[in-house]
């Protein structure tokens, strides 16, 4: 658990040291903080420019974070999801967009483990780790207009998705669609430069501007049946672990929300110490001595630490499921989803509160666009609308009242 809000203020860490792979979780988390410090230095300027984040993804590759979950024998970090969530949180403190990109990438890197056969898992993780693939995904569940045609030895995807996070910067893209003949959902990984795959670069939203989450057209994109995740002889091999994609991605959300909140609180504290003026009628010489300023930072820090502690505890609980992936039960999965829902609700509330209330203790001049404190709010406000947090609280409430476990859906 992160117990302080201190941050690595080194703007230019020694990147030559990145040629060596960290040997433990602590080393990877330090590496993530180094990446965050590089990103934070010009996050506001890059957000304004809105350029496709090729350099930022190259940074994630250079640092090794893209292979954090990859097998050690193939050059990966060999880390688990407990470390991965802390890494996502650290990177998001420097730049929320890149924290999201990394989090989504790690989920799609893991997708073969979620739904693939043992042979597919081995093949995908070997290739992805050795080649440092960066993953994108065209799997927006609100759009059910991608159909799959069975061509015999191959399958072809055709349709459109409104959102495809990481599109222009990915090496490979996870596609999802519905097989015309049976209605089965099929996931497959294809090269992002595949013929017929067109990313429209039309993401123009309030926040998370560098996530390349625009729409995609999929026109007869063809791949081998052998790449259909979890299918053997054109039949899917189901297990409960297949449904863990939602708890994973929701906990990814939790951690980059908390990372953005942490970054906001750190940036605000720096501004208050260095720039904010005390109120002229308050009787104090420094803003940091104002009682209401002290109280606000104490309040927000306490709430952030509490939300981080819950997120860390839920991550540990989830790791036990990952460690028992082939035998996890529906009851274990459902009980875990309730805990994830609670963490999601807590992270949403605290991130929105922190990114809003920091202006109360930084002063009117802190609203200047060159200061950039608005970036934290815009990022959190944008992504927390992904799915209504009220439905997360409903999962928790119904479990508390009647012991109900949520049924697996695209959002629960």
Automatic annotation (TrEMBL):
Tell me which stretches of the chain form a coiled coil.
none
Keywords in alphabetical order: Flavoprotein, Oxidoreductase
Which region ranges are annotated with the description Disordered? Answer: 1-22
Q: Where is the Acyl-CoA dehydrogenase/oxidase N-terminal domain?
A: 39-122
Listed under GO biological process in this entry are: L-leucine catabolic process
- Record GO terms (molecular function): 3-methylbutanoyl-CoA dehydrogenase activity; flavin adenine dinucleotide binding
Which InterPro entries does the UniProt record give? Acyl-CoA_DH_C, Acyl-CoA_Oxase/DH_mid-dom_sf, AcylCo_DH-like_C, AcylCoA_DH/ox_N, AcylCoA_DH/ox_N_sf, AcylCoA_DH/oxidase_NM_dom_sf
* Domain of life assignment: Bacteria
* Domain Acyl-CoA dehydrogenase C-terminal, residue spans: 252-386
Gene3D superfamilies, A to Z: Acyl-CoA dehydrogenase/oxidase, N-terminal domain (1.10.540.10), Butyryl-CoA Dehydrogenase, subunit A, domain 2 (2.40.110.10), Butyryl-CoA Dehydrogenase, subunit A, domain 3 (1.20.140.10)
This protein is called Acyl-CoA dehydrogenase family protein
Q: Which organism is it from?
A: Williamsia herbipolensis
